[in-house]
């Protein structure tokens, strides 16, 4: 069942009914000011940090869902009837409804009682504000006298404190209304450096800034008392719950259309000021007024909208493909690339499932996300790498998360997730392959953000490897620490009572848990370091890192091989996890993908066997599950993974993030049809046809899909912010299509389905446009490569002479019959 359709020409998903299975979200903003917006105008906005600079309140886990947002009410003065053109929050049955979620824009339109209304939401480039453009048209044969009420509920900045510290917050709310602008200045007397504002291009007929005056004590957002009676009360908030409500009058002749522009913005004064008088203590509004004047002009709004479109045009044009599959085209060219940019901005901090409070940027998360956006914004990717590396610990370990506003490691979450540091190596290498920027390795970067601890980025990478080498267990495998990629596989850590902090145990024999997954990852990272060292001409390091990989590989194949697949780990008692000898959790996806991607088992048949076991034991119509059988009870020695029911989250769901590892692994064995089959099983565009089962947005990847042991198998959760976005982009573009950056040039080595006859691509690589035409001439994956008509003997296209604008590449795939 579908609730809308893809409009590929306009790059929008068009939702045609408001009652989607869950709120379907989009993101506004791509620099420092951001917003989440649902298809019915729910969501919130923030500046840089979703916890510390929250502008709008939002209520997660509420009933009804999706409460809090950018709400506009229309009221017919003649009848007293009122409604929301965005359906929520009034939920009146509208005559027509559409929501067009676009790239950085959302447009919600409806008709009701002869009135057409459309609201466009977006954040202009270079600005810390959002625009709501309301267009109202009278479709009646008689004049319409309407009142509009545009509303936001202000958050008191720190979203965690706002939701918990009521003894303080009910007393500190402050607003000011001056010259058609509502200023939210809570904390201004304390911090004196930031405020929010809400204004309109139309004159205020009235306003409210105290929520109780607008809603009433016992009313909800679906029935505000001020809207019901048709008048705000000009209330000024003193504590309690400050809001911004702007009431305007719209008198429309038959067929007439009016446009009203609303602005919600954030302003920060450059320096803390000392206030000498009450007038200055209110707010320094002088810096906001020019922006308000500019963006309440219709022409300026249209120009800003066009600039935003041009920005995204430029990003997407860096990589465009045409394949025989419409779903692959749609995802690569538009939605997968877009989602990669959103994960760049958000990491895992703010979505319909992440509150923006408990998590900042993730060390592992953000380094992996880079794989998907580095080709679009290489200069910003560079800065992201330096920011992440600065939170690394001097041991070579890493904080698991850091706050984007402060760029400090998150002590509450801590470190000791032992795979984390290795992801820095993979992401830095991906960046240099894309850009050729060796100079980034010489950048001086601190450890733990401590002044005076700066060392070249290259040393940070070396310490990451050393961190693993210094922490190996009785089998010689890397210690897992608190967890590896699966945060919930806690083989050393447990909590005896709810709420207690994790404690480390060394097990009954004094051993510590080991990770086969990290063993495979160390081999992969060491190979990357050896390639990087070779690119730098550092023979000593080439030899060292090749030896690291050569030493670890036989340990993995000896102690990590279970006979038909790679084991997952060894627990704190020395017992295997992910083995046929286990009662539950006999096989896991992670080591199969990581070990084969690292090249382990390719020559002796272990890789082939492991992937056959994946297909037999883990693959389902909805994707590949994490483990099987799922754990049916809680096991203290396994930790949080067994706290989930079978088929959900880390315990047997389709954890989509790891599925691309299997896709990539299948291409390494030459299985293009199998790799693409797995790609389509979790592809959002494909799953649109079962939206009533899938439930989350059909245009972006979700983190998990309920597995085969779950009663709700096929149901997705935790959409938008997931490493699935970057890894699927890598799997389809770099391995199935085979267009892959290397240190020395662009490689084109496809492993796509046998039925595909032709693929074209346009790829900007190191400021040169590559026009690529791939043609299948026979079965198999052998390639012949022609550059500007001349055959080359390698699939890696040499870098052209400086000043070259475009390179034409012809690739023939397969062996001619």
TrEMBL record:
Glycosyl hydrolase 94 catalytic domain sequence ranges: 311-738
Keyword Signal: no
TM annotation in the entry: none
Example of a GO MF term: carbohydrate binding
Entry keyword set: Glycosyltransferase, Transferase
Domain spans labelled Glycosyl hydrolase 94 supersandwich: 11-285
Entry's Gene Ontology BP terms: carbohydrate metabolic process
The name this protein goes by in its record: Glycosyl transferase
